[in-house]
Design a protein that fits this description.
By secondary structure, the chain is an alpha/beta fold. It has helices at residues 8-15, 48-59, 61-64, 76-90, 100-104, 118-130, 145-157, 172-182, 217-221, 231-235, 247-263, 359-369, 377-396, and strands at 39-44, 66-72, 95-97, 111-114, 134-137, 162-164, 189-197, 270-276, 289-296, 300-307, 315-320, 323-328, 338-341, 347-350, 400-403, 408-411. The radius of gyration is 21 Å and the shape is globular. The two termini are 22 Å apart.
């Protein structure tokens, strides 16, 4: 499989003044949309995260001639809110559906934004690509390897523009760190260590307002076994094994993708993991404390931990033979980063960000130019493989390995 990763020389040539060198700039063969042609977008999944997508598109409607013309959600409360907000923002009421297939069947929809529970990302993404729509897909791209493989193949077959919601690829501080690493000043990098912490039962939600009569339950279940309505499975899907793969997909995805960008890396070759439900005995089916260790064929280890039972500082540190790059304290990787060089008289300086436009705007620009966006589906496939491996390692208690030739994950 082509790895489509950027060489260090190419990175350094392009990083100055813009972030174009950090994404895939190869144009898709299909012609670009006309300069004055309106791009019509559908929203699939209209929860809280989708409201951010809606606001981003609305802010760009005049600059890029884009409009949301259809919305879809299985829960009437979300659907009605989305219709109202889209109507307010675009002065035209969108078409509304509870089944994504009905939205995808619309001939005048050019692209869709998929913001649904993690278990449904794969099948909806594949369906959208089969309908020849361009896509913005929230992270993780999918939690099933079969869908990741199929989606990548379809995107290339139909020449679709797919942007994954791993927005660190558009964050100037991360792009600055990638430029520092590409410059080689840290020497040989053998290890990267990172952690994220919250001290509350994240994703535990009240769901008394979610009633069966207001939900298209069969549409929500998709391929899951049929069962009576369960408001927790809908509103607290993050906590259930059937609907998410836990901390690897929910959070590690961002960090493993940022690491691949920073290190110009591809797929991990092996993954091990430990964790458990040590703090929040509230019915969740996933670990609240988790550590994974991934080995990359480029020659380094990536260790990532997450704890839902402490207010400890967040951290991310890159260890090289000549120095380190580190950020601590902030709750995102956009916190200031520092380079510390070793020696008789150690030195320290801030990492300079690399300018870049917004992640959503990058996607919309690529809808016209037909270039591959910064978080192209190739990178989505990579982060999906990494998070799926880590989740499988925890679940099985065995190290997992990835074969990039056969695109399979097996116990080591």
């Amino acid at each position: 499989m082509p790895r489509n990763i950027v060489s260090r020389r190419r990175f350094l040539a392009n990083a100055s003044g813009s972030a174009v060198g950090l994404g895939l700039t190869a144009a898709v063969v299909r012609g670009a949309s006309g300069a004055n042609e309106r791009i019509r977008i559908g929203l699939i999944g209209c929860g809280d995260r989708c409201m951010g997508h809606l606001a981003s598109i609305a802010a760009l409607q005049s600059k890029h001639n884009v409009q949301i013309t259809a919305v879809c959600d299985v829960w009437q409360l979300n659907l009605k809110r989305a219709v109202a907000k889209v109507t307010e923002a675009f002065k035209e009421e969108p078409k509304a559906f509870t089944r994504f297939g009905d939205l995808l069947a619309l001939k005048d929809i050019d692209a869709v934004s998929i913001v649904t529970p993690d278990f449904s990302h794969g099948p909806i993404l594949v369906a959208a690509l089969e309908a020849k729509k361009d896509v913005y897909i929230e992270k993780p791209m999918t939690i099933q390897l079969s869908y990741a493989n199929e989606a990548l193949d379809l995107a290339r077959k139909y020449e679709r523009v797919v942007q994954c919601g791993t927005q660190y690829r558009s964050h100037p501080p991360i792009l600055g760190v990638a430029r520092e690493v590409a410059g080689g000043g840290l020497g040989t990098i053998s290890r990267i260590s990172s952690a994220a912490c919250f001290n509350h039962p994240r994703w535990k939600r009240k769901h008394d307002d979610c009633k069966a009569a207001d939900v298209d339950w069969d549409a929500y279940l998709l391929y899951l076994p049929k069962r009576p309505f369960d408001a927790s499975l809908l509103r607290e899907w993050h906590l259930h094994r059937e609907t998410s793969n836990g901390l690897p997909g929910l959070w590690m995805t961002h960090y493993v993708d940022a690491t691949a960008l920073i290190m110009n890396a591809s797929y991990p070759s092996t993954a091990t993991a430990l964790g458990g439900n040590y703090v929040w005995k509230d019915g969740r089916e996933h670990a609240d404390t988790f550590t994974a260790l991934l080995e990359y064929p480029e020659g380094f280890l990536f260790e990532w931990s997450m704890s839902l039972g402490t207010d400890a500082d967040w951290r991310y540190c890159i260890y090289g033979t000549k120095g380190t790059i580190e950020t601590t304290g902030g709750r995102t990787l956009s916190h200031p980063w520092h380079v510390r060089m070793a020696g008789v008289e150690p030195t320290e300086r801030k990492v300079e960000p690399v300018p870049a436009n917004d992640h959503f705007e990058n996607w919309i620009e690529c809808l016209r130019t037909r270039e591959r966006p910064r978080a192209d589906i190739q990178f989505g496939h990579q982060h999906a493989v990494a998070s799926i491996m880590a989740a499988a390692a925890l679940e099985s208690g065995r190290q997992q390995k990835y074969d990039p030739q056969t695109r399979t994950i097996q116990p080591a």
